[in-house]
């Protein structure tokens, strides 16, 4: 008979433990927001989000079949896991899509402040984590 036990423990200062990882992810999202803004005319023609993700991935990621990507993501974010890269791409496309929609609505009815460019919130992390 196997006896298994589990226990629960709290990680102290968990927000600080993951601050570097979250910071790098947010920097990557900021980079990808710039790519999505540059490529928006082509991206808006693609209906499915997976297609948009694939288009950006081809523009940023070096592979054997894609030896010269347009943007140099891989050297800035070396060894960035593919699942995080794809999540960051999806987040960036969503932020740019929302910005473009809000900006178009604002142009039709310019009340209030003009919508600002999207960001990943990297600077907010520094305040939360207490780092500089």
Indicate the topology.
Elements: H1 14-17, H2 19-38, H3 40-43, H4 49-60, H5 73-76, H6 82-108, H7 122-129
Rounded Rg: 19 Å
State the helicity in percent bands.
55-70%
SSE sequence, one letter per element? HHHHHHH
Q: Are there runs of 5+ residues with pLDDT below 50, and where? A: 124-132
Number of helices: 7
For the largest beta-sheet, the strand count, sense and barrel status come to: none
- Judged by helices, strands and strand pairing, the structural class is mainly alpha
What's the total number of strands? 0
Strand content: under 5%
Please tell me what the overall shape is.
Answer: extended
Mean pLDDT: 87
Q: Report how far the terminal alpha carbons are from each other.
A: 53 Å
Please provide a written account of the structure.
By secondary structure, the protein is mainly alpha-helical. 60% of the residues lie in helices and 0% in strands. The chain has helices at 14-17, 19-38, 40-43, 49-60, 73-76, 82-108, 122-129. The longest helix has 27 residues, at 82-108. It starts with 13 loop residues before the first helix and ends with a helix.
């Amino acid at each position: 008979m196997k006896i298994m036990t589990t226990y629960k423990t709290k990680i102290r200062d968990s927000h600080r433990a993951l601050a570097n990882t979250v910071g790098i992810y947010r920097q990557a999202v900021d980079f990808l927001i710039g790519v999505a803004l540059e490529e928006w005319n082509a991206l808006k023609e693609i209906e499915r989000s997976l297609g948009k993700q694939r288009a950006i991935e081809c523009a940023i990621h070096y592979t054997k079949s894609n030896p010269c990507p347009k943007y140099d993501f891989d050297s800035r974010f070396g060894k960035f896991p593919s699942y995080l890269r794809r999540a960051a791409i999806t987040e960036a496309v969503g932020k740019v899509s929302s910005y473009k929609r809000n900006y178009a609505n604002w142009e039709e009815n310019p009340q209030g402040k003009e919508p600002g460019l999207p960001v990943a919130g990297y600077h907010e992390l520094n305040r939360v984590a207490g780092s500089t």
